[in-house]
Design brief:
- The complex is a heterodimer of chains A (about 325) and B (about 260).
- Chain A is α/β, with parallel strands linked by helices and about 325 residues long.
- Chain A folds into 2 domains: about 40-55 and about 85-235, 3-Layer(aba) Sandwich (Rossmann fold), CATH 3.40.50; about 240-300, Ribosomal protein S10 (Alpha-Beta Plaits, 2-Layer Sandwich), CATH 3.30.70.
- Chain A is about 35% helix and about 25% strand.
- Chain A has 13 helices and 14 strands.
- In chain A, the strands form 3 sheets. A 6-stranded mixed β-sheet of chain A has the order 6-7-8-3-9-10, sandwiched between helices. Chain A has a 4-stranded antiparallel β-sheet with strand order 2-1-4-5. Chain A has a 4-stranded antiparallel β-sheet with strand order 12-13-11-14.
- The radius of gyration of chain A is 23 Å and the shape is globular.
- With about 260 residues, chain B is an all-alpha fold.
- Chain B has one domain (about 5-255).
- Chain B has 9 helices and no strands.
- Chain B has helices spanning about 5-45, 55-90, 90-95, 100-130, 140-160, 170-185, 200-205, 210-220, 225-255.
- In chain B, helix 2 (about 55-90) packs across helix 8.
- Classes of the chains: A alpha/beta (about 325), B mainly alpha (about 260).
- The interface of A and B includes residues 60, 85, 92, 97 and 103 of A.
């Protein structure tokens, strides 16, 4: 057993979460359609994708509340369908929507949740105190939850999912709707948990969150994984390193990049055009010559995960805005 | 998945924690309600009734109203409260991220609803006893009927709640199901005596009639073999609806 921890064999250790050929149909709709996924122990893994792409359904299959129509889900090496109690006793889940008891204080909410894990007496009180401190809930620990701010409630929801010291923490859109300071605080806690060996599986709509927190991400579209890997690797795999953004109509686009520029990857969002190249300097030159007044507001930036996301999920911003 | 009693008790404890914060406010109506009924119907209407079943009308009413209190206590819990926890508060979704299984949630909720029934029924009994309407010690046996009535109406209500899609349907449950039971289940008059021979079975179908008959026997101190049938009715219907509800809650909470 000791050998398992050593470096050369480390890669051979079973992944903490493993999905093989997993599919889920709801009637005619294929919510998840043939997903293979491995989350290594100790990693932070992000599921990205537009609403309805199958991220939450995938998470629900990981903790065993949704049963796959096909395929197998193993967590901690256990078959989730057969041993849901054992699996769930070792993981924690922060749901998209906080499910808190509004009439009770944060401390009492933690106590209630601790009892679901069969904690009691001094052990329960100790854990409640630890989590109140860990998520900075002390100032309002005895105030009914309904009087607390959104950021406070979110931190409490995360605290609830840590009650059993989970080996795997599942976070479904952990920072949606939170202000920047609270987001930073949540990220800091996630990093601290990872430092103590917790594996994290999260979904997010924020590409900066994914780039900051995740070792690996999988981009979902229509119930399938379009691509997965480290954020840097995904960017390099799908797009050139630099992006040139400018305001530019379809006719000007044709004039600027149409002839001889056919191989240049372009994406359009309304009137805003994004052009990708390993070196955009010559393109920028061309734009400046064409547009002497500077009306197209050209910007050069490194290509990021959001570009890859838009490319792979076929999301057209113009449509979303309409 | 088999039920884990410790996990079910954690659900019971959750509800108890919430109730404990407001019990002083909650329990007061439980004392007033029976007083109003006993005064209005028992003493007011009773003034025009000589004797019924060998006792005064107010004495006749007391055991039946204890069962009604138990029925109401359980029913609110398993209808509106379960529906809100399930559909609006997402409390069960949160529970199912822990080792709890849907079956544990159901058993915890049924135990809690039965507990509420005991609080309501027990409070009613205290008032009735304070009025001197509960012949001691044999009327104390009626306290054993209260959890039976509570359990019965907990599973009936839960089975209904797990079936309905919107909260609006509960008004039907209360006005078209519980209210007729309240009015026709031997609480105010012996319904069997008002039915023609061929229709006697109608009364026997009514769920509330059985705990009422048991409670009344406890107050009278006269026990007959038919009470065993009442007990069997309560236990068998509860068991059958529980089995159905187990499947229903698994379908409702998991996919």
């Amino acid at each position: 057993m000791e050998e398992r921890g050593s470096a050369p064999l480390g890669r051979l250790i079973e992944p903490l979460v493993s999905l093989r050929g997993v599919a889920k149909r709801f009637g005619e709709r294929r919510a998840v359609d043939g997903v293979d996924l491995d989350v290594p122990a100790g990693a932070c893994f992000g599921l990205l994708g537009p609403n309805g792409a199958g991220k939450t359904t995938t998470l629900r299959m990981v903790y065993g509340v949704t049963r796959p129509t096909a395929g197998r889900v193993h967590v901690f090496g256990l078959d989730v369908a057969r041993e849901p109690r054992q699996v769930r006793s070792r993981l924690g889940v922060t749901l998209q929507e906080n499910a808190l008891i509004e009439s009770l204080s944060p401390e009492d909410n933690l106590r209630v949740f601790g009892r679901f894990h069969l904690l009691r007496g001094a052990e329960l009180e100790r854990r409640v105190g630890e989590l109140v401190d860990f998520l900075d809930l002390r100032s309002h620990a005895k105030v009914p939850v309904r009087h607390l701010s959104g950021g406070f409630q979110r931190r409490l929801a995360i605290a609830l999912s840590l009650m059993n010291r989970p080996e795997l923490l599942i976070l479904d859109e952990p920072t949606t709707g939170l202000d920047p300071a609270i987001r930073q605080a949540v990220w800091a806690r996630v990093r601290e948990l990872r430092a103590t060996g917790t594996t994290v599986l999260l979904t997010t709509h924020y590409m900066d969150e994914a780039e900051r927190l995740c070792d690996d991400v999988a981009i979902f579209a229509n119930g399938r994984i379009e691509s997965q890997g480290a954020p840097r690797t995904l960017i390099a795999r799908h797009l050139a390193a630099e992006a040139l953004e400018l305001d530019c109509g379809a006719i000007d686009e044709e004039k600027l990049f149409g002839e001889g520029g056919g191989s240049i990857r372009r994406m359009r969002a309304g009137n805003r055009l994004i052009v990708y190249a390993s070196d955009v300097a010559p393109l920028l030159e061309r734009v400046h010559r064409f547009d002497e007044s500077g009306g197209c507001r050209a910007v050069v930036r490194p290509t990021n995960l959001e570009d890859v996301f838009l490319l792979l999920t076929g999301t057209r911003i113009g449509e979303a805005d309409a | 998945m088999s039920v884990s009693l410790p996990h079910a008790l954690a659900v019971w404890r959750r509800n108890a924690s919430m109730y404990a914060r407001t019990w002083k406010l909650n329990i007061l109506p439980n004392f007033f309600e029976p007083v109003f009924y006993l005064m209005s119907i028992g003493i007011g209407v009773g003034a025009y009734i000589d004797r019924i079943g060998g006792v005064s009308y107010v004495e006749f009413l007391a055991p039946g109203l204890i069962c009604v209190a138990a029925m109401n206590g359980a029913s609110f819990e398993v209808t509106y409260n379960i529906f809100v926890r399930m559909s609006y508060e997402k409390a069960y979704d949160a529970m199912l991220t822990t080792p709890l299984q849907p079956e544990d949630v159901l058993v915890g909720e049924l135990l809690w609803a039965t507990t509420r029934a005991c609080i309501y029924g027990g409070a009613f009994f205290l008032v009735v006893a304070a009025y001197g309407l509960a012949p001691l010690p044999h009327s104390l046996l009626a306290l054993a009927v209260v959890p039976l009535a509570g359990l019965l109406f907990a599973v009936i209500g839960a089975a209904f709640t797990l079936r309905v899609a919107t909260i609006d349907l509960f008004s039907f449950y209360f006005t078209l199901f519980l209210t007729p039971l309240f009015l026709f289940s031997d609480v105010f008059f012996p319904i069997g005596e008002r039915l023609q021979g061929g229709w006697l079975w109608v009364a026997e179908v009514l769920p509330l009639l059985h705990p009422v008959r048991m409670a009344r026997a406890c107050f009278a101190g006269t026990f007959s073999p038919i009470l065993l049938l009442d007990l069997a009715y309560i236990l068998l219907l509860s068991a059958g609806l529980y089995a159905w509800s187990r499947g229903a809650i698994v379908r409702r909470l998991t996919s």
